[in-house]
Predict the 3D structure of the following.
Amino acid sequence: MQFDLSPIDIVDDISKADFEKNYLNPRKPVIIKNMSKSWPAYEKWTLDYMKSVVGDQTVPLYDSSKADPSKPINASAAEMKFADYIELIRNTPTDLRIFLFDPIKHAPGLLDDYRAPKELMGGFLDSYPNMFFGGKGSVTFLHYDIDLAHIFHTHFNGRKHIILFDYKWKERLYQIPYATYALEDYDVEKPDFDKFPALKGVKGLEGFLEHGDTLFMPTGYWHWMKYLDGSFSISLRAWDKSWAVKAKSLYNLTLQRKFDDFMKANFREKYMSWKEKLAVKRANRALANKQPY
């Protein structure tokens, strides 16, 4: 069985007026096919090119194992030379991923290869955006971004499967309390509705990114991503205009994160078990109350 998924809208190009009316203001995702075609990166950014400019750096790697309750959420599973990792994902299916790594700091010439879509909106945040790399079959677990930014996520060198959910479904998705990710015990591609009944009826969006495609993800959107080929992406982030969203972002990044790290460090498995039980309790309550309305 699968979630109730509709296709993500796809456009070749889009004007600022249409983007604001149809996607930014209603906070609706869209895939823009041609946005990156004017970038130097569209032709230059291959696995070989990234290897040539960043290859000597040692990078942290992350796998698909369930989070260790005694470690921070971003604790890595291993390390490897970037050049060796590129060869790994080029030739071998693997669940090892790179995220929250910034090749641009090590190769500042990459800054000239892409353009923030300021013709569509303002408020872009990062001077040095993060990039994400994955081998065939690797999966980014279901979560939403802690800073609640709007995201323009452009993919290179292969294909990526995307499943998205509006923020309003957070309790039905078994959100872990004091965190921005979901219970990791169900398969997003094939959820077990008998074991996790609150998932039944949750509505989402589905799409596939190819080389050069850009996904616009509005603030707070839950996302699950699977690399169908060894490939990589760059995310450009922009603030939402809402001061309420900015305040929630600040809370997430400071009070919530510090509290969660403190509790994990001091109570470990006991704290994680309590959080998972509370996630299930909240999901069942939301289902019983037919939330969200």
About this structure: The CA atoms of residues 69 and 194 lie 26 Å apart. The chain has one domain: 4-288. The domain at 4-288 is CATH 2.60.120.650 (Jelly Rolls). Helices lie at 16-24, 41-44, 47-54, 82-91, 103-106, 243-288.
